[in-house]
Design a protein that fits this description.
Elements lengths: L1 H93 L2 E7 L1 H4 L18 E9 L6 H12 L3 E6 L2 E7 L2 E2 L8 E6 L18 E7 L1
Parallel strand pairs: 1-7
Antiparallel strand pairs: 1-2, 3-4, 4-5, 6-7
Amino acid sequence: MKKQIASVLALILLLSAFWGCSNSLLTYNSLTTTATSVITTQNATEKETQTAASKTATETTTAKTTTAQKKETTKITTAKTTVKKTENKTHTQTQNYCYITIECKSVLDNMDNLKEGHEDFVPSNGIILGKTKCTFEKNASVYDVLKKACNNKGIKLSARDTVYGVYVSGINNLDEFDCSQQSGWVYTVNGSSPSVSCGKFTVSKGDEIIFKYVC
């Protein structure tokens, strides 16, 4: 009987020991699983953080590049505009211009002597072309300015070459001798009558040219 009791007790102790070992193993496995999960979670978090940081850095670099490109484009556009303004300013400063007037006021006082049928070519105020600003090329003559002004305004101009140079015989269908045997066209520059043909007189910037029909 004592042997049986001893055997039972031994068995119980053995089972207890075995049970304790099993619980320890289960606990160890549980702890191991938990630690692995924590490590995996940490790795995933670190990876997400690195990815986010990389994305942010890329976006920042792209933004900086775009901003730099916009600034560079703005600089180029501004530079082109400045160059264009400078060119326009330079062109304006170097542009040659003068003023020209064409009038036949003397005819108004001699209408009785005017060739029949030419009344329609005489404006009521005697002004065929009011004072007009006209640009010209370097070394242009008074005749060049007259021809350009007449072409721009659709005014008929008649002229011929002579031994003395270009002679203007008619403007706006008012020709020489249409109002008397001494009638015809003359010109002045800044109030003075040059002694040469209008084709030989060189225009200067700001000159005021007047063509008059005299009777």
